[in-house]
Amino acid sequence: MSIRSCRGEQAKLRIVDQYELSPVAHLKLLAGQETQGCCGRVTNRYYSFEAKERKTSKIEELVVGYDCTEQFLNLIELEPLPLFNPFQSFSRRCGRE
Fold it and tell me: Which of these, 37, 74, 83, 89, could form a disulfide with 65 (CB 3.0-4.6 Å)?
């Protein structure tokens, strides 16, 4: 089974029931970038989850916008990951804070 949509509370509950979710990264998109998440278009920041299907152990990636992520984190009872912002990381490496 592939995760197509996570819109709505019932869809999220079904996903949590069928998959073991593990957050991998909390990422900031660069200006003008966007990606497609399971709840729709994402233009600011998003999470990447490893989704392991409980029945088959098949692993897939689940890309989720931040509002939707907060709901998933509550359902699986995990704390948020720190945000990776490529501009801040680059500035720190170059000595520019």
Answer: 37
Cα 7 to Cα 56: distance, rounded to the nearest angstrom: 24
Backbone torsions φ then ψ of 28, nearest 5 degrees? -100, 130
Cβ count near 43 (within 10 Å):
12
Non-local CB neighbours of 28 within 8 Å, separated by 6+ positions: 44, 45, 83, 84, 85, 86, 87
Distances (CA, A) of 77 to 16, 23, 31, 51: 11, 12, 31, 15
The pLDDT averaged over each successive group of 10 residues in the chain (97 residues) is 88 97 95 93 96 97 94 97 77 51
Q: Do 78 and 49 touch, CB atoms closer than 8 A?
A: no
Angle in degrees, CA 40, 11, 58, rounded to 5: 90
Q: Where are the domains of the chain?
A: 9-93
